[in-house]
Design brief:
By secondary structure, the protein is mainly α. α1 packs antiparallel against α5, α2 packs across α3 and α2 packs parallel to α5. The model has no long low-confidence stretch (mean pLDDT about 90).
Length: about 130
């Protein structure tokens, strides 16, 4: 596995742990923690996809639009497109829409979708020796 791939995976896994910690440590009302957990989950997914793209294609998207194009065009990533799109929407609305208040259930859904992305994308990567 390439060092740059490992760097992206490390960031993704640290972000996943942080998102889970946010949900575990939330107090009442939990909305800000839920919203930030969804945002962090999305950026974890970004790094997982970047790890895959670097390892397989030696490309590193410069923006979300370019990453989305790779998600659309790479058949191996087809299984995670829907989960990635959902995380993108949740993260965007949690970050930019002042009226959004994510429930704990929606934040947990974000983490579940992130796990699907991690499992499927890393299955396409070579194992570390």
């Amino acid at each position: 596995m390439e060092p740059r791939t490992r760097d992206h995976l490390d960031v993704a896994l640290r972000n996943r742990e942080f998102a889970a910690w946010l949900l575990d440590s939330a107090t009442d009302p939990p909305a800000p923690a839920n919203e930030w957990a969804a945002i962090v989950a999305f950026y974890s997914a970004v790094h997982i996809v970047n790890a895959y793209l670097w390892e397989v294609h030696r490309v590193e998207p410069v923006n979300h639009r370019q990453r989305t194009q790779y998600l659309i065009n790479d058949a191996s990533l087809s299984a995670i497109r829907g989960d990635f799109r959902t995380l993108s929407r949740l993260g965007w609305s949690a970050r930019y829409d002042p009226a959004v208040r994510l429930s704990t259930q929606r934040a947990l859904e974000a983490l579940d979708r992130l796990e699907q992305i991690i499992n499927l994308a890393t299955a396409e990567l070579p194992s570390e020796e």
